[in-house]
């Protein structure tokens, strides 16, 4: 197996002394896991940041081993990780994708929607501009994996109603998609929701 494709990096898990296992969201191959040698070295550390857009080459090895990947940076989300709200938004969107989608199943609409969400988080003037996009992405993900028929949030939904919607969707995600992993993954969402509520009075 040899795949060359653009990908959104969703998670990085250190593996061994120098490497890491990454999960990559691709348009044609869905979520893919692969081993990156030297991932913890100086050259690759700034490349392997969740949310980054990469060019990847994934090469299959023995059937009992993870594929290996070579990665090249296309666009970095690093500059936004020093800002609390964008950092929390990027972290949650990537953790949700990496934790809930089955590997090897193409979800081209989810891939494109995740890319649009990350762009919105990085370039919208404030979180009010991208929180609705985030809510829409969660609705789409739930629908794509077979849970729920909730419509996307309306364009002019008041901010308190949007926050209440995000609360409801969080319960659905935790109960339906994450099961025994909810505590680990939903922690990043709790941080995000807390930060979104703080801007309610603006």
UniProtKB/TrEMBL annotation:
InterPro entries given in the database record: DNA_rep/recomb_RecO_N, NA-bd_OB-fold, RecO
Xref: Gene3D superfamilies: Nucleic acid-binding proteins (2.40.50.140)
Protein name, entry field: DNA repair protein RecO (Recombination protein O)
Span of domain DNA replication/recombination mediator RecO N-terminal: 1-75
A GO biological-process term: DNA repair
Spans through the membrane: none
């Amino acid at each position: 197996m040899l795949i060359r494709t653009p990908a959104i990096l969703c998670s990085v898990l250190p593996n061994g002394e120098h490497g890491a296992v990454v999960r990559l969201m691709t348009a044609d191959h869905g979520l893919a896991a692969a081993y990156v040698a030297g991932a913890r070295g100086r050259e690759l550390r700034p490349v392997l940041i969740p949310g980054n857009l990469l060019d990847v080459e994934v090469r299959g090895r023995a059937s009992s081993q993870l594929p290996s990947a070579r990665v090249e940076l296309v666009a970095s989300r690093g500059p936004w990780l020093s800002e609390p709200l964008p950092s929390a938004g990027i972290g949650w969107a990537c953790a949700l994708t990496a934790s809930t989608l089955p590997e090897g199943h193409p979800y081209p609409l989810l891939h494109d929607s995740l890319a649009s969400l990350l762009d919105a988080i990085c370039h919208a003037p404030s979180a009010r501009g991208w929180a609705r996009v985030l809510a829409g992405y969660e609705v789409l993900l739930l629908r794509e994996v077979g849970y729920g028929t909730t419509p996307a949030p309306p364009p002019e939904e008041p901010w308190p109603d949007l926050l209440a919607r995000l609360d409801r969707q969080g319960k659905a995600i935790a109960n339906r998609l994450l099961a025994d992993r909810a505590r680990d993954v939903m922690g990043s969402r709790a941080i995000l929701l807390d930060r979104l509520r703080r801007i309610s009075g603006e």
